[in-house]
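Chain A, query sequence.
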Amino acid sequence: MSQTRLSVATASPYDVVIGNGVHAELRGLLGEGVARVAIIHSAALVGRAHDLRDPLVADGMDVHLIEVPEGEAAKQADVVAFCWGILGQAGFTRSDAVVGLGGGATTDVAGFVAASWLRGVKLVSVPTTVLGMVDAAVGGKTGINTEAGKNLVGAFHEPAGVLCELDTLATLPMTEVRSGLAEIIKCGFISDPTILDLVEAAPGAALDVSGPIMTELIIKGIAVKAETVAGDLRESGLGPDGSIGREALNYGHTLGHAIERLENYTVRHGEAISVGMVFAAELSGLSGRISPELVARHRHILGLVGLPTTYRSGAFDELLAAMRLDKKSRGSQLRFVVLESLDHPVILAGPDDEMLRAAYAQITR
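Chain A, predicted structure.
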């Protein structure tokens, strides 16, 4: 049974295990001394939750299944409070553990529950979507949304390990696969251009969750994130090599998060980030950093796999207001991750509204 193990070399190192049959490693990741485990999952994954629970119960653990809403609806303060209530009733102590089973939204909320209960209990993330595997489950960021914006309340809380069971991808709708692929393509632009080459050479294979190309893309995407967060866990803005560090992972996210908020989270994360990357590429071009050919390559690659590259006109003022509330802003100054060149992201701080409007005009064509 083929498995790949990647190490995230932060102050508290942990492994990301990718392959088939990796759920069997959950017991080992929980370690000794854990008496109680809460498995936080969505309704669609109740069967998987039971599959994880049964071996733990057989080993003498007290396991609680906590069902949360699907998608972004889970990332709310009342959902977190509901989870806290169950942990309190069950008598969870600091030596117990939380398991997050599901897509990126589920692992985000499970991580925040683990980070906030008794100021931090053990967490194991078990992502079940492409997006969850390559983005949300790795890196120690946890959080929930508020009316003011996305992920504005949260904490850094690293997991004890991440289990990426590839066979859980088999039932994903193609829209979810594309959404996850957007984050992988992002990793190609900011760090590993071989990702872009793979997608361009075989876009159909890149969308086949049962094929070797998708597996390779997932591994490459996780490797980029693991290396990036290892050098800058708390997004201090400086990597060990003088780079912008973890902020690079926000490429496309400033506008992308604003689109998600404006659409009341009815668009998928990867779809919004896809448009956000084209916008960031246009800013990179307008500020004299990259060529028109590299800007066009964004549209070409994202379009090859069916991701959106445009957004509706007439929404700029609303999006600008939402971007000003983004957690990447500093005071009243907007900050965008842009490309100095392929795989060389930098920060564009405080671009004037004229440049922003010009870039936006290019994505509404």
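Residues 204 and 305 are 7 Å apart (CA to CA). The chain has two domains: 3-171, 179-363.
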